[in-house]
Amino acid sequence: MDPRPKIPALDIENIKSQAKRPKRAVVTGGMPYANGPVHLGHLAGALIPPDICARYLRMLIGAENVLFVSGNDDHGSTSELAALKAGVPVREFIDGIHDQQSRTLKNYSIAFDTFSGTSRPDCFPIHSALSQDFIRKLHRNGMLEKRTSRQWFDPKLSRFLQDRFVNGKCPNPKCDNESAYSDQCDKCGSQYEPSELLNPRSTLSDAVPELRDTVHWWLDLWKVSEPLRTWIQTKDKTWRAAVYTEVLGTVLPSLAFANVHEEKYKGLKASLPKHKSKYAPGKKVQLQFETKADLTEARRSLDAQEIPSELLDGWAHRSISRDVAWGIPMPADLDPEMKGKTLYVWPDSLIAPISFSQVALKEKGLDPELYKSFWQDPEARIYQFLGQDNVYFYVLMQGAMWLGTQADPMRPPVAGEFQLTDVFGSYHLWVEGEKMSKSTGNFYSGDQLLDEKGYTGDQIRYFLATLSLHEKNSNFDFAALNERNKFLAGPLNAAFEKPISACHSRFEGKVPAGVLNEKIVEETAKLVQKYLRAMDRSEHGVLLGQIENYARLINSLFTQHKPHDDRFPEEERRNALYSCFYVLKNLMIMLYPFAPVTMEKLRESLRLPADVFRIEELGRPIEAGHAIGEKQEFFPGVAE
Fold first, then answer.
1. Are 152 and 195 a contacting pair, CB within 8 Å?
2. Confidence check: pLDDT of 319 > 50
């Protein structure tokens, strides 16, 4: 007798009961501009990951409790400029792009509850009213500051020009770009003041533009930087490291002084509140503190030692209005100088998912006001997927806007106020080892991959999910994609097909009565635990490898127990095939968010009900005697 105590087996039902279940969930992603087709980068970072998340959440808490919404980012200069180049009215251009993108999303099984647009008739009245309500509350809470700045003006057209409507020579002497934008050069990456642009021309009229004064509202993020900081610091164990590090590093209060005072500072350093120091551009030393109170105390100490310092708060003041006709009108009754101005496209797009949620509820025949139970309930959760470049806007600007609408902006939101969201940033996707670029020929739209390259939506979805963009820049390599597709069409298809074939050839097309293999149950429990954790964090690369290894258990059962071969003991064969169908059902459920079309085919072949795609069904065997359908082509074959 073995004297060692037995380790209790993992209990699958108990594991499932411990899964993190929000009461309701909103899932959204970075919105595609209404200026062209959906490209591979959109799919990889802001469309397929949130779809995987939404499908998982529907399995976890029920589809009725999940809203997956998005739409076109219609306003601002990007769409307007694209329409001008195409020579068609903006409305007509945007509608055409929206229809094209909607077809692409359908072909990739991106299952939005609604895919609208900020200017579309179903959304604009809702979105305009909501956006103006935001502005009024921000104004009421002293979150808006009026500033005068200089902006390009086209004297021929008598209108102010957004940065994208002014081109000129890049001021970087090492760059030869003659078509740099007003404030940045896409060729060399330089950023500069508009006044530094050489030989500026209006892209609308070819006139030489003039810099003129204009008044705008600026959002004061500094006012709520402390509640932002304390909220962000609660995410140190749950947010992706790159997201957390970037936003915390930005929001922590900092100052700088000229490095000529460095020796004097060193003598004072030990007496200052806890801080970090580093060298900063412009021959300066930067000090970063944990709280505003610490920063204030440190500035007093520096002043006393005649070390003049400057507050590094440039991140905390952003203009939120524009001199543009195409957009959400600013409420001019609050300030006559806002007449004719519109909401900047970034705050416009941050508010948009709330408007889209109302559109989705209306389309379902529900009261649009139910959006509050998704966005304003502390027991609900909001998942937002976007490129790492946009983390500032979705965490800091959005967080400040949400706090700024509250009765008291200096505390965390309570029930009935907009809840702060969870942000999932992704790194860049390169193609064949280089950044995507039309000029170098490695730019691919979603349609091209399906129509010209011949891939299926599930093949692309699955491959992108293996790339782990949540932790690093990754490469979309066609050779690697084809190797992955060979695995799907080979070993993974075989795992699906073998039990179905054996069932029909040896057990009259029905699941045999049997006993589950103990090792299989243990491996399933371990995998379910990993699955729930990884899906909650939307970290898919390692997980898919683990699921693939689990699928190989079917081949092991066939190799060891030969359920397809009458020459082996029948009880052993029955138990093995019964266990194979147990594994197969679990595989089908776990892979559904990644390859929904293929898993629907598998469900049909297994003759399981449509509502089988639920987390509760994991670890529950297919009943003995259940009739199994015929095989299908699951993942398509790959030509050598």
1. no
2. yes
